[in-house]
Amino acid sequence: MSSDFLDPASLAAIGFGALGQGVRISRNAVLLAPHRMRIGDHVRIDAFCVLSAGEAGLTIGRNVHISAMTTILGHGRVEIGDFATISVRCALFSSTDDYSGASMTNPTIPAEYRRSTDGPVRIGAHAILGSGCVVLPDVEIGESAAVGALSLVKSDVPAFKIAVGTPARIIGDRSAEHRGMAERLLGQEAVARRPDA
Q: In the record, which residues are listed under signal peptide (predicted)?
């Protein structure tokens, strides 16, 4: 059985804005506007993800895992920091329609009849989103923050905080131990790359 992940030649042919080393992307992922995507080293994007880079682009740092059935949609900029984890079935939206009824909704409608809002989404380094999280435009999830499964994130989550619920609210602090582990990993990789190693 062949791998679910694209081979290096197939990845290179996609035409990303930038593509790091050791990237693994499922052949069953959908990538829209890949020329506006910048992907760092050792990123893994699993099956049935839909990633659409809006005009402002999509940047994914190194060692990021985007798990199965995740969607990233909208016109605003999306940034995902190094070592972040986006769990199964998460949805990150950098655009949202007007739900008030004062305008029409959905992309089949001409722009003059719609009133959508665009805004950046930033997921900090080492942050983790639990399964089924929804993140709305103009939200920043700080470095090393954690968001529990099935949470709706409508406002910023500060660094090293744990948030859960609908809407998400802060319930505690996250340990910083993982940051030291990341430094050790990067150090080991640097040693392995040295010509005298």
A: none
Within a 10 A sphere around the Cβ of 118, how many other Cβ atoms?
17
- Output the six-digit token pair for 18: 């930038």
Q: Tell me the pTM.
A: 0.94
**pLDDT per position as a tens digit, 3-41:** 899 999 999 999 999 999 999 999 999 999 999 999 999
Cα(106)–Cα(123) distance, integer angstroms: 26
Q: Which residues of 72-104 are buried (b: 16+ CB within 10 A; e: fewer)?
A: bbbbbbbbbbbbbbbbbbbbbbbbbbeeeeeee
The rounded distance, in Å, linking the Cα atoms of 123 and 85 is: 9
Ordered by where they begin, the domains of the chain are 8-193 (2.160.10.10)
Q: What's the token pair of residue 37?
A: 């995507």
